[in-house]
Amino acid sequence: xxxxxxxxxxxETDKLVYNFNASIAFDQKFYREDIEGSMAHVTMLAxxxxxxxxxxxxxxxxxxxxxxxxxxxxxEISDAYEDIHSFVEATLIDRLGDVGKKLHTGRSRNxxxxxxxxxxxxxxxxxxxxxxxxxxxxxxxxxxxxxDTIMPGFTHLQKAQPITLAHHMGAYFEMFKRDRLRLYDxxxxxxxxxxxxxxxxxxxxxxxxAYTAExxxxxxxxxxxxxxxxxxxxxxxxxxxxxxxxxxxxRFSEEIIIWNSNEYQFVEIDDAYSTGSxxxxxxxxxxxxxxxxxxxxxxxGALFSLLTTMKGxxxxxxxxxxxxxxxxxxxxDTVKGCIALFRGMLSxxxxxxxxxxxxxxxxxxxxxxxxxxxxxxGVPFRDAHSIVGRIVLYCxxxxxxxxxxxxxxxKEICPAFEEDIYDAIxxxxxxxxxxxxxxxGREAMEKVIETEEMxxxxxxxxxxxx
Length: 466
Known about the structure:
By secondary structure, this protein is mainly alpha-helical. The protein is built from 19 helices and 4 strands. A two-stranded antiparallel sheet has the order 1-2. Helix 7 runs antiparallel to helix 10 (233-259).
């Protein structure tokens, strides 16, 4: 079919070139944003006297009909058109004739696609934030239910000190809180309207760009027309935030995979979020956690792809920038799907509290507290550290825990030990006496949970305020 830009050309584009150049297969994803942007543009044109009120009303009514028909399935987006912009405009002209041809007055496909991508990304930022908030609520529920669930804390994947499951989950709560703040920060920077930038140098038509921005809920218009059509920083920032979200989900998934193993048995994943083996009937595999971990690389790839695409592009718009869409759309969908599925898996997971407690007991996680006990009884810390190291070696040889040693055995290694050592190194004491801000003690954790509940009481971050 003839292209909307075909007046300059004397013969049709080669079919292979056309297909290579076309973007309708993927940019149809923001048909709604394209139509809503066109409606705002037409409304502004009429306000400025560039279109009559009758022309505006006719175009707006037709655009609304096109949107409704696309969403109902009555109108199919055809790959006979080069891109979603051509599809919408050509459909409008087919229905309205010459009036429809006035839609594109004072506008280029360059600022049109810049607007559509920004509108679509803005919506995805808000939706991703909503899903993160739901995940945070699930994590907080687990924290509230497990203030007294003792488990080992790890460094180097080796048992280190006793903590609680609430404390462990609280670490991920903080990660996803930071992710939400990143999304909010991105929104504040990106929420400016490029429409009216033209191809790169604005237009001679008396456009009211501030009014168009207001109609589309932007803070205002972009301040440089060349930057307006060529900026994809906001998308790179969003993909970077998505990559960080996936990194956090992947770390969490890795722990769940470990905790689900036969060796740990800290958790049991619900049947709805597990799969079996085609040959080994005993298997129950943590596939959702593994897929989330695997899909992290997919999102990283989108970020690095866009960074690589943008690194050598001179001002202003270049066709390379069409490559910002496919991988970005895939990354956005991947992140949303992973957050939702991970939350479902987490909310139905059963934590095996007795197993966690037994693991903390059996890993010398109270060794540091035994050393602290000696320090409080006048032993220099470096000597106390060495003494407890000898105790651990003794226990390993006897296959017992420190708690299992008799007072006589302890005194033989160091006379400073007294009967109160057993209370000092109990799991409950080791956890609950840690009351500094951010520590796992019950009193400290109750204050944290109160703070987090207040934080989540704000249903969303207020993206509407600059």
